[in-house]
C-alpha cells in the first residue's frame, strides 16, 4: 500500500495499529488484493465517492448477515480465482497465448459466470460489483460446449488439425502393435514428422484464438475489476462485523465525534490477558483539545485509537465505534517521541521539532487531525512547558482539530476543551497499596485493573492529577525518597500560595 | 524370486523409481513399467525435481525419453510440458513453481514423449500425487532421485523401486556390491517407538539437529546444517538415546563423531528417511560394529530392484549372470528391464 505520509508515516501506521487491522482483512482474490494495494484516503473532493463506499460496505454487511448461505457458496469460486492479467496483457499486445493461458482464461470465465449468478442472487444495488456475462469467451474456448474445466486445442477449431491427429493416432497404434525394434524406430521417426505438423497447425489455431479473444479482453477486465471490488468490499464488511464497525457520518462542521471507539490491536492484546479495552468517547472541535491524566492511563493508546479510526474511515472502512462523525480531512498527523530518529543523529526533541514544522505547514493550508503525544517531554521541563503552551495556543487558532496529551500543568486556556483520563481518581490508594504489598509480583497488573481508562470532559482549569507520587507509593519506592519528594512538593505549594 | 512387476505394485497407488546414479536406466525402468501397465491402469506421472534432458547434462549421452499412453495424466513444469509431444489437455494448474515454471497437470490425448519436471519439496510432491489420483490416476509413478540436491523424499510414495545398472562400474562385482549396500541403506530400520517419532517430528519441524534423552526429554540445537555439526553432536551426546538429524547425514559427519567420542554406543542416529544417508560401506560397518545405530523416521518401502546390464558408455555385462548374482545376494525381487525378464 502506498499512502501519502500526510496520512501518517509507515511507521506511525504500524504504531497506531493500522497494519494490524489490514492484516485482519480477509481479501481472497489477487484482484481484491490489488484493490487493497491501491486503497488510500479519499480526497476532499471525493466525498461523494467515500459516502457511496460506506453505503456499499453497509449493504454488504447487511447482506452477509442475511444471506449467509449464498456467501458460503460464493467463497468456493472466489478462492479459485487466479491472476490472468499477464495473459490478457500479452493478448492485447498481439502475442500468441499458449494452452495453459487459454485454460486459465477459460477457468476464469467459468468461475466468473458462477459468481455472476451467485452475486446476482444477493440483489445488491452496487454498480461496482455487477459482473457481465462471459458467454462469448466461453463459446470461444469451449467449442464442444461441455463447460468442463479443461482446455486443449480442440479438433473443432481446424479440420486440418483433426486430420493430422487422426494420422498421429494411427501411427501410434502401429507403434504399439509392432514388436520389431527397428520397425518401431522407423515408425517413431515418422510419428515425429506428424507431431511437427500437429504443432504447426496448433500454433495457427492458437494465433487465431488469441486474435478473437482480444475483442473480449474488455469484458474480462470489467469482471476482474468487479470481482476485486466485491472481494474488497466483502472484506471490509466482514471486518466491520468482527470488530463492531459502524457506518460513519461525514459532517460539514469541523468536529470529530467518537462514541465508544476501540483499537482492535490493543483490544486483541488485552483479550489474551483476559482484559477488555475500555471504549473511549470524545468530541473534538476545531482548535486544541488537551488530554491530561495519570501515568499509565492510556493517553497514548487513546490518541492512537483516534488516529487509526480516522484513517480507516477516510479510506472507506467502518471505524470501530458506536458512533463516529468527522469532516473530510486533508491530513492526519501524529507527533510523538520518535526513537528511531535518535539513531539518525537527532535528539528525540529535535525530531519532534522537525515534525512539528511539517504539521504547521499543513495546518496553514488545510483542515485535518493532529495528535500530539506528550511532545517536548525529552527536553527540560521549564522550556518544555513554554513550548507546549505556545504550540497548543498557536494551533488553537486554526480550523484543524488538534488533540494534545500532556503532563504539563498550565497548558490549557479557557477556550480549549479539556479531557482527563479518569485514572486512579476514584481509587482508595491505601487499599490498592495493601493489595500490591501482598502480591508484589503482579503489581503492574493490579494497578492496571484499578485504572479507569475512560476520558471525561472537565473544566479547562481542572487540576492535572498528581498521580506520580501515588504510583511511587503503590510500587513501594524507598520511603525516604517519597518523604523527601513530599517535602519539596509542600514547600512549592506554600510558595505558590504566597505568590497568589 | 520371479514375479510379475505388476503384481508387485498392485497394492500401491504411488510408486517412486530411484536410480543409484545417472544413466542407470531409471527412465528405461519407467518405460518398462508404463508398457506393462498399458491398458490396465490409468497412470499419473511426475518426478522429483528435474531429471529428464534429452542429453545427460553431465555425460552428454543421449537419454531415453519417457513414452506414455493416451489418457495418462502428467504433472510437470510448464516449460517441460511444452517440450512434450503428446496432444495435451490442460486439466489443472497447481500454484507450485519450479525454475521451469508452474507445475501444470495435463492429460495425454495421444501417445507420445513427455518431459517430466516435478516439485522438489516433499509436501508439494504429496499434494500433486493426491491430485493426480483425485482426477482419475490408478497409479502414480514418481521419477525419483537419489541425490543430495532434492529435499523431496521418495518416502512419500507407498512403494519404491531401485534402479541400478552397468553404468556404475565396468567391474560387475563392484556394481553388485554397491547395489547390495545401497539396498541395505535404503532399508535401514524404521524407528518403531511412537513417542520417539512424535518427538523427532517436532524436532525436525523447526531445526536441523536435536537430541532425545534417557528420561524422554528432548532438545534442539541451532546449527546451520547438520553436515558440519559433529562438534554439537559430540557435546550433547551425554545421556542421549537419539540424535535426530534433518537433511543429509554424510560419511564425514559420522567419521568425525567416531574420532571424537565413544559415547555414540547404543545411540540411535535418526534420519528423516534412508535417502538422506550418504555413507560409505566401510564407515557404516565400523559405526555399527562400535555400537552405533541408524534408523529412520519415514521408511522407504523398497519393493524391488530393476537392473540394466548395458552401459550407455559402451560396455555391457552378461545380463543373466548379473541378474542371478543380484538375486542371490538380495532378498528382493530383481528385474532385468532390458531383457524383459
Automatic annotation (TrEMBL), chain A:
Short name of any one Pfam family annotated for the protein: MutS_V
Tell me where on the tree of life, at the top rank, the source sits: Bacteria
Q: Can you supply a Gene Ontology BP term from the record?
A: mismatch repair
Specify whether S-adenosyl-L-methionine is a keyword of the entry: no
Residues forming coiled coils = 33-67, 154-181
Q: Which GO terms describe its molecular function?
A: ATP binding; ATP-dependent DNA damage sensor activity; mismatched DNA binding
CDD domains with a match to the protein in the record: ABC_MutS_homologs
**Domain spans labelled DNA mismatch repair proteins mutS family:** 286-490
Keywords from UniProt, A to Z, are: ATP-binding, Coiled coil, DNA-binding, Nucleotide-binding
What the entry lists under PANTHER family is as follows: DNA MISMATCH REPAIR PROTEIN MUTS FAMILY MEMBER (PTHR11361), DNA MISMATCH REPAIR PROTEIN MUTS, TYPE 2 (PTHR11361:SF14)
Report the protein name in the record.
MutS-like protein
Record the organism.
Caldanaerobacter subterraneus
Its taxonomic placement starts with: Bacteria, Bacillati, Bacillota, Clostridia, Thermoanaerobacterales
From TrEMBL, chain B:
Under which name does UniProt file this protein? Uncharacterized protein
User: What is the species of this protein?
Assistant: Caldanaerobacter subterraneus
Please indicate which superkingdom the organism of origin belongs to.
Bacteria
Amino acid at each position: 500500500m502506498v499512502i501519502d505520509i500526510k496520512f501518517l508515516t509507515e511507521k506511525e501506521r504500524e504504531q497506531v495499529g493500522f497494519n494490524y487491522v489490514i492484516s485482519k482483512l480477509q481479501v481472497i482474490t489477487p484482484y481484491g488484493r490489488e484493490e487493497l494495494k491501491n486503497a488510500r484516503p479519499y480526497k476532499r473532493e471525493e466525498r461523494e465517492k467515500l459516502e457511496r463506499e460506506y453505503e456499499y460496505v453497509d449493504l454488504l454487511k447487511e447482506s452477509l448477515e442475511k444471506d449467509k448461505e449464498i456467501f458460503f457458496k460464493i467463497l468456493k469460486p472466489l478462492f479459485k480465482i487466479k491472476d490472468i492479467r499477464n495473459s490478457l496483457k500479452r493478448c492485447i499486445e498481439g502475442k500468441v497465448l499458449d494452452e495453459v493461458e487459454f485454460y486459465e482464461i477459460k477457468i476464469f470465465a467459468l468461475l466468473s459466470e458462477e459468481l455472476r449468478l451467485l452475486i446476482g442472487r444477493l440483489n445488491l444495488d452496487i454498480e461496482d460489483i455487477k459482473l457481465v456475462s462471459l458467454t462469448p469467451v466461453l463459446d470461444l474456448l469451449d467449442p464442444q460446449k461441455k463447460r468442463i474445466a479443461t482446455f486443449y486445442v480442440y479438433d473443432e477449431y481446424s479440420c486440418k488439425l483433426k486430420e493430422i491427429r487422426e494420422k498421429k493416432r494411427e501411427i501410434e497404434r502401429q507403434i504399439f502393435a509392432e514388436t520389431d525394434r527397428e520397425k518401431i524406430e522407423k515408425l517413431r521417426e515418422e510419428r515425429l514428422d506428424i507431431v511437427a505438423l500437429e504443432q504447426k497447425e496448433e500454433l495457427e489455431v492458437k494465433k487465431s484464438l488469441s486474435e478473437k479473444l482480444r475483442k473480449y479482453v474488455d469484458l474480462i477486465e470489467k469482471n476482474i475489476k468487479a470481482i476485486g471490488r466485491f472481494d474488497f468490499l466483502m472484506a471490509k464488511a466482514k471486518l466491520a462485523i468482527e470488530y463492531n464497525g459502524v457506518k460513519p457520518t461525514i459532517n460539514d462542521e469541523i468536529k470529530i465525534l467518537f462514541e465508544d471507539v476501540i483499537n482492535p490491536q490493543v483490544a486483541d492484546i488485552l483479550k489474551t490477558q483476559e482484559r477488555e479495552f475500555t471504549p473511549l468517547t470524545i468530541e473534538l472541535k476545531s482548535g486544541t483539545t488537551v488530554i491530561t491524566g495519570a501515568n499509565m492511563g492510556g493517553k497514548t493508546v487513546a490518541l492512537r485509537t483516534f488516529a487509526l479510526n480516522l484513517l480507516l474511515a477516510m479510506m472507506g472502512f467502518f471505524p470501530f465505534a458506536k458512533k463516529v462523525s468527522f469532516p473530510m480531512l486533508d491530513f492526519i498527523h501524529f507527533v510523538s517521541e520518535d526513537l528511531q530518529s535518535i539513531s539518525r543523529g537527532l535528539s528525540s526533541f529535535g525530531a519532534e521539532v522537525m515534525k512539528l514544522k511539517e504539521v504547521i505547514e499543513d495546518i496553514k493550508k488545510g483542515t485535518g487531525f493532529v495528535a500530539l503525544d506528550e511532545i517536548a517531554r525529552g527536553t527540560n521541563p521549564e522550556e518544555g512547558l513554554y513550548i507546549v503552551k505556545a504550540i497548543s495556543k498557536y494551533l488553537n487558532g486554526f480550523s484543524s482539530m488538534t488533540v494534545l496529551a500532556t503532563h504539563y500543568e498550565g497548558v490549557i486556556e479557557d477556550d480549549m476543551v479539556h479531557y482527563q483520563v479518569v485514572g486512579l481518581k476514584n481509587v482508595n490508594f491505601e487499599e490498592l497499596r495493601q493489595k500490591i504489598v501482598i502480591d508484589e509480583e503482579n503489581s503492574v497488573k493490579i494497578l492496571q485493573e484499578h485504572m479507569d481508562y475512560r476520558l471525561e470532559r472537565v473544566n479547562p482549569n481542572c487540576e492535572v492529577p498528581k498521580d506520580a507520587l501515588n504510583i511511587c507509593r503503590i510500587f513501594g519506592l524507598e520511603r525516604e525518597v517519597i518523604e523527601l519528594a513530599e517535602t519539596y512538593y509542600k514547600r512549592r505549594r506554600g510558595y505558590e500560595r504566597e505568590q497568589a | 524370486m520371479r514375479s510379475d512387476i505388476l503384481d508387485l505394485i498392485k497394492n500401491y497407488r504411488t510408486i517412486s523409481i530411484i536410480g543409484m546414479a545417472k544413466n542407470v536406466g531409471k527412465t528405461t525402468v519407467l518405460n518398462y513399467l508404463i508398457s506393462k501397465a498399458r491398458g490396465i491402469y490409468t497412470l499419473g506421472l511426475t518426478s522429483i525435481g528435474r531429471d529428464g534432458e534429452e542429453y545427460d547434462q553431465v555425460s552428454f549421452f543421449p537419454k531415453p525419453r519417457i513414452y506414455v499412453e493416451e489418457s495418462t495424466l502428467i504433472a510437470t513444469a510448464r516449460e517441460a510440458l511444452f517440450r512434450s509431444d503428446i496432444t495435451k489437455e490442460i486439466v489443472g494448474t497447481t500454484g507450485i513453481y519450479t525454475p521451469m515454471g508452474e507445475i501444470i497437470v495435463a492429460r495425454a490425448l495421444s501417445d507420445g514423449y513427455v518431459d517430466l519436471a516435478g516439485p522438489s519439496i516433499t509436501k508439494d510432491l504429496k499434494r500433486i500425487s493426491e491430485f493426480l489420483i483425485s482426477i482419475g490416476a490408478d497409479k502414480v509413478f514418481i521419477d525419483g532421485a537419489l541425490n543430495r540436491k532434492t529435499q523431496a523424499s521418495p518416502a512419500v510414495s507407498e512403494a519404491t523401486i531401485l534402479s541400478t545398472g552397468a553404468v556404475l562400474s565396468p567391474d560387475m562385482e563392484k556394481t553388485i556390491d554397491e547395489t547390495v549396500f545401497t539396498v541395505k541403506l535404503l532399508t535401514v530400520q524404521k524407528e518403531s517407538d511412537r513417542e520417539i517419532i512424535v518427538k523427532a517430528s517436532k524436532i525436525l519441524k523447526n531445526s536441523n539437529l536435536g537430541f532425545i534423552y534417557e528420561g524422554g526429554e528432548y532438545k534442539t540445537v541451532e546449527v546451520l546444517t547438520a553436515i558440519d555439526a559433529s562438534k554439537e553432536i559430540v557435546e550433547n551426546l551425554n545421556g542421549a538415546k537419539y540424535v535426530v538429524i534433518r537433511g543429509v547425514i554424510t560419511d564425514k559427519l559420522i567419521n568425525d563423531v567416531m574420532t571424537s567420542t565413544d559415547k555414540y554406543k547404543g545411540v540411535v542416529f535418526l534420519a528423516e528417511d534412508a535417502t538422506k544417508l550418504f555413507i560409505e560401506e566401510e564407515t557404516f560397518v565400523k559405526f555399527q560394529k562400535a555400537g552405533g545405530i541408524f534408523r529412520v523416521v519415514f521408511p522407504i518401502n523398497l519393493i524391488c530392484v530393476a537392473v540394466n546390464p548395458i552401459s550407455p558408455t559402451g560396455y555391457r555385462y552378461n545380463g543373466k549372470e548379473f541378474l542371478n548374482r543380484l538375486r542371490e545376494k538380495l532378498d528382493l525381487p530383481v528385474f532385468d528391464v532390458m531383457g524383459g525378464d
